[in-house]
């Protein structure tokens, strides 16, 4: 009986020790403590550096790198009580404000830990822009390295608005007012001006004679593509279609690229096929349930469309829904070798610039911005305006930037004081990089 009582005591002691976390050696209670909760710290880096900035947290030494649009998230940071962590950004050649930031994790994730760095001024390359007011109604070339400005074409009482350099052949095409044609072609260095597309062309029985919005030209500047307002045969449905027209001043070739009850706009050439002679045109469309950037192959010789339209990238929300957007503006631009397209993307009602390969692939978000223009001068930079620029009339608040397609190397581009500002801040989007050789 005594042995049985002793055995029961041993079992009772073991049960109590286990339930209370005992059982370890040395009298210290060797049971494992529950892990501390972890949280995240996030924010953005903006200014001259946004992509590739290293964000480090101390103590602990965890780090991450900002994305193409400057955002970052540090995850799995243990609760530190009242002692703050220090968040520090770093990138060779840049200084940040603030230098670092203290963060206390008080039982929740922390957002909005942001940093900025000055945006340096771009001092290389050349820009083309329409000047105004009279008597400086001209197309001008500004060398960013010296600040010197050269007049390429003096319009007298006529003036240019939208300028599109050809990728080859030293040609510049432009639209404007009081011109002898709808789209003019300027050859350099001779300065010879010719009519590419005559004024008020009759493109189709049910379409306007005045192009709407932005346009683009083929690599040699011998074709133009633009959007035009059309109506259904009964006049009840209004929409926009894309036309490809030969720039010979004679309207010898007019090809209707789209013919549907959708808003098709902001077209751009996005490739050529030397074997077949086909060209590819990209454009934005708000086709019901299929909003996005689309691509169509065309054979200019036969005047026929080749194959179906294919979507390059989806736009879940149409850019036309942006509060300051107009279908008159450029929303996409293609790089010099026709491999990538930059486009405006509606992100929660805010315009972002994004880049995607034309052959398909991952999208790169470059952050807030509007009216992209991809340089064809070999620099591979993308020009874009700040969103704020489109909403204000004060020229001192206008901003134009250039950035690499991976989000690095953001720089501010000087805005000429004689820029044609009839369209207010939207006129900043008419500044383009001059092609190589200008």
Give the averaged pLDDT, no decimals: 86
The CATH architecture term of the largest domain is 6 Propeller
What radius of gyration results from the CA coordinates?
Answer: 30 Å
Kindly state the percentage of residues in helix: under 10%
Largest sheet strand order: 3-2-5-6
Number of domains: 2
Keywords:
Neuraminidase, globular, 438 residues, Immunoglobulin-like, four-stranded antiparallel beta sheet, mainly beta, 2 domains, disordered N terminus, 1 helix
Could you characterize the architecture of this molecule?
With 438 residues, the protein is mainly beta. It folds into 2 domains: 80 residues, Immunoglobulins (Immunoglobulin-like, Sandwich); 308 residues, TolB, C-terminal domain (Neuraminidase, 6 Propeller), CATH 2.120.10.30. It has 1 helix and 31 strands. The strands form 8 sheets. Strands 3-2-5-6 form a 4-stranded antiparallel sheet, with no helix packed on it. A 4-stranded antiparallel sheet has the order 10-9-8-31, with no helix packed on it. A 4-stranded antiparallel sheet has the order 11-12-13-14, with no helix packed on it. Strand 8 and strand 9 form a beta hairpin.
SSE diagram, text form:
Elements: H1 2-19, E1 38-47, E2 54-58, E3 63-65, E4 71-78, E5 85-90, E6 101-103, E7 115-117, E8 126-131, E9 138-143, E10 149-154, E11 159-165, E12 171-177, E13 181-187, E14 192-198, E15 207-217, E16 223-231, E17 238-246, E18 254-256, E19 264-272, E20 279-285, E21 292-299, E22 304-314, E23 332-334, E24 340-347, E25 350-357, E26 364-368, E27 370-374, E28 382-385, E29 400-403, E30 411-412, E31 432-433
Parallel strand pairs: 1-7
Antiparallel strand pairs: 1-4, 2-3, 2-5, 5-6, 8-9, 8-31, 9-10, 11-12, 12-13, 13-14, 15-16, 16-17, 17-18, 19-20, 20-21, 21-22, 23-24, 24-25, 25-26, 27-28, 28-29, 29-30
């Amino acid at each position: 009986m005594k042995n049985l009582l002793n055995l029961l005591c041993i079992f009772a002691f073991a049960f109590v020790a286990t339930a209370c976390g005992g059982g370890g050696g040395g009298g210290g209670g060797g049971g494992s403590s529950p892990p501390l909760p972890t949280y995240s710290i996030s924010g953005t880096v903006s200014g001259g550096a946004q992509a590739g900035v290293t964000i480090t947290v101390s103590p602990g030494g965890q780090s991450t790198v900002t994305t193409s649009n400057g955002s970052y998230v540090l995850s799995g940071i243990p609760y530190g009580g009242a002692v703050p962590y220090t968040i520090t950004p770093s990138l060779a050649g840049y200084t940040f404000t603030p230098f670092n930031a203290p963060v206390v994790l008080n039982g929740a994730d922390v957002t909005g830990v942001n940093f900025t760095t000055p945006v340096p001024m771009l001092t290389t390359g050349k820009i083309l822009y329409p000047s105004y007011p009279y008597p400086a109604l001209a197309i001008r070339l500004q060398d960013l390295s010296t600040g010197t400005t050269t007049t390429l074409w003096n319009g007298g009482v006529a003036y240019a608005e939208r300028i599109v350099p050809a990728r080859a052949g030293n040609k510049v095409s432009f639209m404007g007012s009081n011109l002898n044609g709808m789209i003019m072609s300027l050859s350099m260095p001779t300065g010879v001006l010719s009519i590419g597309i005559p004024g008020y062309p009759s493109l189709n029985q049910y379409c306007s004679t005045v192009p709407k919005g932005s346009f683009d030209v083929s690599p040699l500047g011998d074709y133009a593509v633009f959007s035009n307002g059309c109506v259904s045969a009964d006049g009840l449905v209004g929409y926009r279609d894309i036309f490809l027209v030969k720039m010979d001043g004679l309207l010898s070739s007019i090809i209707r690229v789209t013919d549907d009850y959708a808003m098709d706009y902001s077209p751009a050439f996005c490739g050529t096929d030397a074997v077949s002679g086909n060209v590819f045109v990209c454009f934005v469309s708000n086709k019901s349930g299929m909003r996005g950037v689309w691509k169509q192959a065309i054979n200019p010789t036969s005047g026929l469309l080749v194959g179906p339209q294919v979507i390059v990238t989806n736009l879940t929300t149409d850019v036309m829904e942006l509060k300051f957007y107009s279908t008159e503006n450029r929303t996409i631009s293609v790089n010099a070798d026709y491999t990538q397209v930059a486009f405006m993307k509606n992100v929660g009602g805010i315009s972002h610039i994004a880049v995607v390969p034309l052959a398909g692939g991952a999208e790169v978000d470059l952050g807030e911005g509007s009216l992209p223009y991809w340089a064809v001068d070999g620099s591979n930079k993308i020009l874009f305006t700040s969103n704020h620029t489109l909403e204000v009339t004060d020229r001192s608040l206008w901003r134009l930037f250039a950035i690499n397609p991976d989000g690095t190397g953001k720089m501010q581009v000087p805005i000429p004081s004689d820029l044609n500002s009839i369209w207010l801040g939207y006129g900043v989007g008419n500044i383009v990089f001059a092609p190589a050789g200008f």
